[in-house]
Amino acid sequence: MKSRYLLFFLPLIVAKYTSAATV
After folding, report:
1. Which contiguous run of DSSP H or E holds residue 12?
2. For the CA atoms of the chain, what is the radius of gyration?
3. Angle formed at CA 16 by CA 14 and CA 20, multiple of 5 degrees
4. What was the pLDDT predicted at 10?
5. Beta carbons within 10 angstroms of residue 12's beta carbon
6. How far apart are CA 22 and CA 16, in angstroms?
7. Cα angle, residue 22 at apex, residues 18 and 23 outer, rounded to 5°
8. pTM score, whole prediction
9. Is the Cα torsion angle 13, 17, 22, 23 positive or negative in sign?
10. How far apart are CA 2 and CA 18, in angstroms?
11. Where does the source fall among the domains of life (predicted)?
12. What is the pLDDT along the chain (23 residues), one digit of tens a residue?
């Protein structure tokens, strides 16, 4: 179950980081 949460949250966190880096 934890793996599923990670797989679902990882892309979200990465996108947030990319957005912050771009700005």
Report:
1. helix 2-22
2. 10
3. 115
4. 94
5. 9
6. 10
7. 120
8. 0.44
9. positive
10. 24
11. Bacteria
12. 688 888 899 999 999 999 888 77
Token look-up 């949460």 returns 5
Q: In the block, which residue shows the tokens 């980081």?
A: 17
Read off the amino acid at residue 4. Answer: R
Structure tokens at 4: 């599923």
Tokens matching residue 13: 């966190």
Q: What's the gap between Cα 12 and its chain centre?
A: 3
Give the residue carrying structure tokens 């934890």: 2
